[in-house]
Amino acid sequence: MGSNPHRHCSVPPRRNDVVDSLFAWFLSGQTCPRMGGFVAATVVVFLTICSYYAYTRHYRTVSGNAAGSSVDSAVLQQSTDPQALLNSANHFYWLNNGPAATPLYARAEKLFSERGDSRNELYGKVGRLRSEAETMSFVDLSRFLNEQLQNPIVQTDKRLRLWCLIAKGYTDIEIVYRATKRDWLEAQEIANELGEKQWATRASGELGLVAFLEGSPGRAARLLGGALLSTMASGDTGGQIRFLELIGRGFEVSGPVIKGAILAGSGRSQWSTRESPRSTETQ
């Protein structure tokens, strides 16, 4: 698997729909009866401000090198070294650049197949399918990945199993969050065993997303915020953008809700002060 490779008929909810619904629900304060929206707003603002530099840096890098990435990928597609192709594909995938990674995984998969290397052929296939997941059924992809996890080769090869779990984790969040939780918990455990600290961090952030869905905002904030800060410290730009996307999209969608929650909280505070002054003195 190498160190730090990255990581997508019935159509289940798309990523934006899932994330938008998730944060609108959470930030409405339903999971925190008292000042839930205010606390959520504070967390979101803090994380967004702390990581603003990461977004701007990533934007400049992507806008300045997008054409170069396409050219590099096209040149690499002519390579006859499947391992070099796999390493390059992993690099693009780690940066969330699926379009650049897909053809490299496809060619590596083909070359490994011709050499009879079933292990790396499967690795390339999983990478290719995950990189082009937005164009296919998440349900079908999840089913395929689940079948591969039962494969004796995958069950004994921890790096290959981690790779399959990562792909399945990113896929299952679009379908059933309980399944993605199992995926990321096992992936995190294996990543720690293998010393893949950055993948363990990304797993933690994805589990933070699951925690929101489970109605545990405090745990979600700790996991997602901790993962974001860890990616900033390690220079994992792709991970930063993934977590910023989750936070920023929720803030954008739920901005009016947050504002209302803050105003409502302020109103309750003033009313409590007038009605029960002693209560504020004992807190």
**Number of strand elements:** 0
Main beta-sheet strand count, sense and barrel state: none
Quick one: CATH class of the domain at 15-64 and 137-271? Answer: Mainly Alpha
N-to-C terminal Cα separation, in Å?
53 Å
Mean pLDDT: 75
Q: Structural class, from helix and strand content?
A: mainly alpha
Taken from the alpha-carbon principal axes, the silhouette is: globular
Percent in strands: under 5%
Number of helices: 14
Order of helices and strands: HHHHHHHHHHHHHH
Reported by name, the CATH topology of the domain at 15-64 and 137-271 is Serine Threonine Protein Phosphatase 5, Tetratricopeptide repeat
Low confidence ranges? 1-42, 51-68, 261-283
CATH architectural category of the domain at 15-64 and 137-271: Alpha Horseshoe
Helix content: over 70%
Specify Rg, calculated over alpha carbons: 21 Å
